[in-house]
Amino acid sequence: MTYLTKSLTNPDAGRAMVEQLIEELGNAVDYYPDWHPILTAPPRNGAEHISSLSQLKTYEELDHTTEFVRGFVTCPYSDVGADKLVSAVNQVPGLYAYRLEQPLYAERAHPVVVVANAVELEADGTIRSRDALAWFVQQAAQEARSAQVAESWWNIRSNLLGGPHGSRSSLFANQHTGKHMRKILEAMNASGMFGPVKESSLDMLSQKKRDMISETLIRTAVAEWEKEKRESFSFEMRGETCQASVRDTWDDNHELSVRVQIREFDLYITGFYYPEDRRMTHSDPRGKRELAEKFL
Predict the structure, then answer these.
(1) β pairing state of 267-274 and 95-99
(2) DSSP secondary structure, 259-272, as one string
């Protein structure tokens, strides 16, 4: 609301228009899931992954855009550009675009609304479950032809749920939809249609467990480094060979930069260790769950 109205000479009229858009298009969102018609309906260049509107030629006139569950409003400064956008979108089956008379974002802008006609909303404001699941399956089946690996739910849930999202729901997909989407993905992965499963995100583990994994490996690496006095080395821990790198960041024994890796990113940890008070900071570990849980 603020983004689209703060610079208008009549912000009250702008707010009234935004309220109408929310009524028509649903809640404002951060980004679309991969299977959303807004992303899948326009023509694409080859099989590239589309993660934003700006990647699609149909939307090349976008400027100052706010996204909603059913579509978006964009506010180009060019009157000709606004007309070009409306014309381009209205040539795409399933999409509809129109111009607004009421200015949004700025007085000199020319707002255009783009709607995915097939998107129907549940009472909770999310996309109707049967449609979301069907679009997700169609998109996944297309990607299977060129896939090299299968991505786990935890790796790609942002792509499947859109943003913002939780562990299995978002403003696009409610808990029912998200639960079944995950089950379908896991069944597809188990079938082997995408290839071997690639794991990298460990978000399925609690933050406490992720912290414990990182801290265990960082402390062990620092202890081994103090003995060997080498920047890069390996050590054995719980049946695994860990490749480590520890260096004095500023050559003053105040901060140590630490990296620990097992095989080709089967587990990967980075962080900093502070010898004075034995404190550390670190990023979340990445890798395979079964391997990571060895270090709990």
Answers:
(1) unpaired
(2) EEEETTTTEEEEEE
CA 223 – CA 282 distance, rounded (Å): 17
| Pair 45, 58: CB distance under 8 Å | no
Supply the DSSP string of 14-50, one letter for each residue: HHHHHHHHHHHH-SEESB--TT-HHHHSS--STTPPP
Sequence-separated (6 or more) residues with CB below 8 Å from residue 79: 110
Peptide bond into 285 cis (omega under 30): no
Query: What would the pLDDT profile of 186-226 be if each residue is shown by its tens digit?
Result: 999 999 999 888 888 888 889 999 999 999 999 999 999 97
Residue 110 contacts residue 65 (beta carbons within 8 Å) = no
- The encoded tokens of residue 243 equal 């490749």
Q: Classify burial at 278, counting beta carbons within 10 Å of its beta carbon; exposed 0-12, middle 13-18, buried 19 or more.
A: exposed
CA distance 254 to 274: 6
Residue 186, helix vs strand vs coil: helix
* Two tokens, residue 3: 């983004």
pLDDT tens digits for range 40-92: 999 987 667 888 899 999 999 999 999 999 999 999 999 999 999 999 999 99
